[in-house]
Amino acid sequence: MNLTELSNEEVVSGLMSIAGDARAVLAKLLAYLGEVDARRLYRDWGCSSMFRFCVERLLLSEGEAQRRITAARAAREYPMIIDAIATGDLNITSIEILHPYLTVDNHEELLRSAFRKTKIEVQELAAARHPRPDAPSLISPMPTAATPPAAAPPQPVPHVSAAPRVEPLSAERYKVQVTVSKALRDKIESVKALMRHRNPSGDLEVIFEQAIELLHAKLEKERLAKTDKPRSVKKGAKGVSAAARRETFERDGTQCTYVSADGHRCSEHGYLEVDDRDARGRGGSDDASNLRVLCRAHNLLLAEQTFGRAYVERKIEEKRHLCQQRYEWSTVTSALTNLGFRDGDVRRAIRELTERFTNDEAPIEAVIREGIALLT
User: Fold this and answer.
1) Domain residue spans in the chain?
2) Is the pTM higher than 0.85?
3) pLDDT at residue 238, rounded to an integer
4) d(CA 118, CA 98)
């Protein structure tokens, strides 16, 4: 299959068409799985269970098999699932989350409530209707794989995911699980001890809430230019002022403002940047009226549309090279300073070294040796 000769529009429209076909095929697959399961036809094909049939005869992975069997059984009980899968209103993950809570009386309303929702939104929906108790606050060591004695049979080591996990327990409560280093664990224990007078139980939620509030305020000041005492912009000042940056984020919110041709707004809330509607290099101003909030990907896309991809890629490469240069010279500076030379002497040596080594082709070790020769 060669797609290189297709236009951008043909590639995306073709992909969307295939995705629609895939949803229709998945709906049929679930219907057939449900029928094979109900008739226990897997036994005729040499399999002891529907799970074995899916893995051994349909060549599905264990995870795929389990999720599809769950969805197929739910669809036999509640046939509206098949149509919802075909249209994209529901997906396998949503059905897996909701299946334990579905009944004859509530299934239609509950399933419709989950239409077109993300995994976390469906989890929140389930948690709001079927709340679970809070998870206990605790810090526990990760299990390690110890080598068993030669005479003893090998014991399986429990699998504990190191990835952060956020799981709703009820409409207002969440379980947050994260793996941390010993250094951070020691800091947490120190904080618990220092604030015992106002948090006698050492509740981790109290500690994390206050820590996050401080970090949140710091990041809002750094990234969004928020402040309790805004200053007026000095006349003649160049560049985007904190006031203009603040006004832009207050107007656009902390979400990318890029809107596609069919009206879909980008949902990205991270990697946000302030961009010029009319490029400053082409006469655009630094006022908030000429600024907008974009994610990094769409900022790059619009830059390519304005200046051309080749120009943008060249500028990115120049910036990357400049950053690499600065990093290498800072390494030379640190190396010479750590050897005991005075800061002023090191700065003078660095100025001469940057004139001698202009092409950045010399190994950093050679540059450091040359610097030592200048300083001794």
Assistant:
1) 8-117, 180-224, 242-307, 311-375
2) no
3) 66
4) 13
